[in-house]
Amino acid sequence: MCGIVGIISTRPVSARLLEGLKRLEYRGYDSAGIAVFNGQGIKRCRAAGKIVNLQSALQESPIEGTCGIAHTRWATHGRPTRTNAHPHQTSQVAIVHNGIIENHKALREELIDQGHVFATQTDSEVIAHLIQHHLDKGLGETDAFQASIDKLEGAYAVAALIGTHSQTLYAARHGSPLVIGFGTDEMFVGSDAFALAPFTQKVLYLEEGDSAIVNIDNVTIKDKAGAPVTRDILTAKISAVMAEKGNYRHFMEKEIHEQPESLARTVAAYIDPDTHLPLLDDAGPLLQNADRLVAIACGTAFYAASVAKYWFEQYADIHVETDIASEFRYRHPALAKNGTALFISQSGETADTLAALRYCKRAGLGTIGIVNAPESSIARETNTNLHTLAGPEIGVASTKAFTAQLAVLALGAIGSAHLRKTISDDEAKAHIEALEHLPTLCKAALETEQQCASIAPTLAQASQTLFLGRGAYFPLALEGALKLKEVTYLHAEGYAAGELKHGPIALIEEGTPVVIIAPNDALIEKTISNVEEIAARGAHVIAITDKACASHFEGQARHTICLPDLPGLTGPIISAIPLQFLAYYTALKRGTNMDQPRNLAKSVTVE
Ligand code: F6R
Hints:
Layout: E1 3-9, H1 14-23, E2 31-37, E3 42-48, H2 51-60, E4 67-73, E5 88-89, E6 93-101, H3 104-113, H4 125-136, H5 141-149, E7 154-162, E8 169-174, E9 179-182, E10 186-190, H6 193-196, E11 202-205, E12 211-215, E13 218-222, E14 228-229, E15 234-235, H7 251-257, H8 259-269, H9 283-288, E16 292-297, H10 299-316, E17 319-324, H11 325-328, E18 339-345, H12 351-362, E19 366-371, H13 377-381, E20 384-385, H14 400-419, H15 425-436, H16 438-446, H17 449-461, E21 464-469, H18 473-488, E22 491-496, E23 513-517, H19 524-536, E24 540-546, E25 559-563, H20 570-590
Parallel strand pairs: 16-17, 16-18, 18-19, 19-20, 21-22, 21-23, 23-24, 24-25
Antiparallel strand pairs: 1-4, 1-10, 2-3, 2-4, 5-6, 6-7, 7-8, 8-12, 9-10, 9-11, 11-15, 12-13, 13-14
The structure holds fructose -6-phosphate.
């Protein structure tokens, strides 16, 4: 997390640094700051909280110059205060950092022994002092920067101002992304091309271990061995237009309503219009010939992977392991020799998912990305991609990206089943036809909005809510609970309905809200038995079901949210919509900021 921007120009840069930061606020919004060379040295301005606070601070005490760096923070070490905000500064150095410096304690102690005085509790401040230390020893700016970078362990993207009248930006990356942008008589550094999109589309992605000296009209790059290298300059296909809320109150609300279009776009991209069969391109052979699949992701994307396991196993008869990326990367997993790994990620920058991808590549697995940001690190490093076409997702809680992930995974499962001949042409076509109805089904599901809004006060005043489901609806229960937790700060748990009697049923008392996700499927009778058990114990049952099964919940559920009949694999995708509404309206009732919930960031670029 944390976002970095740097600009070196013939024109003043402060306003544009701020503009770049606003585009990076999805990476963190605990505090923000900028530093510029103003002719007399480095001047900085910082503020706790969101970027608007920095904007106000700059209005009160403007700083200006033609070379500067800026940062929006997601706190790892040290509280999110103004003191701990970046840039960190010494007499001749200012730095901004994204990542975690793992050896910061040892470095800090060494520097304190040599007389350095630290002002913050952050791991990042040590970088500024290290550079200062090397300057004090007589090294030139470039050598001082490189000598300091060489001492860092952990993950970092760093941009630095060094000296007193300098017109140079120093940058380095290891484990956290960094992009160099090329303008006319100006150059840029950014955490991603999206931050630089208003200024330039011409970008170069630094590779692992690269360090760069950026001057106003050129960049010099060295690789991790210290050898000069050139990197390709690309044209970023990222729009400079910032997503707007339009007539909606919040991005989350807008993005929930965008799902008919995002599903239509995504589904259309993977269906052959002539044959009505899935179109998987390079991913086809990787899914057809693999002995085993492993699907790796974090958070909501992991729940999409978990639904996919049911689909791939049932239809394509292929063993699927699912793993949370932060567990997978450290647990020495036994991997199939001829296996394929799927990486599901909205941002394409999630540090653990990216590390898991690199692990799988080293192990020789084929890799497929299911990513919403086509120019992200994961999308660039996988063998091939089945992109989700949800469009930019701004709300921190994933909504339209989740249903787009499910749609791609459903098409992947049916496509793979068809290629592996575990289903016939006709069966594949019937499934595809069902998936083609997703936009229409989604529109019908959006009509549950007012009913969900009317249930929200019950959830808002409850101390906990349980979510239950069976089969492919079990991961939906986990997702429903996660969505509620993250945007309302209320406690919620998701369970497999069949697990109730093994413990969680003890949580149920008179009035405990229990959301049960149970559209028609082979397990519906069993789920209904579970509902009877919890209703008998006083639970306030909220059933999310479909027309075919709604009558089964009469007398048991206090609310029945009735979706249209959901053919084939559409059930888990469409059932996500009332879960999203329940979370959104409960947050609205509680007055939380569901677009930027506390402690969270949209892109988790540190482990
Ligand atoms: C929850 C949510 C997160 C993300 C997770 C992975 O609503 O959005 O749980 O799903 O942080 O992020 P990506 O998909 O960007 O890898």
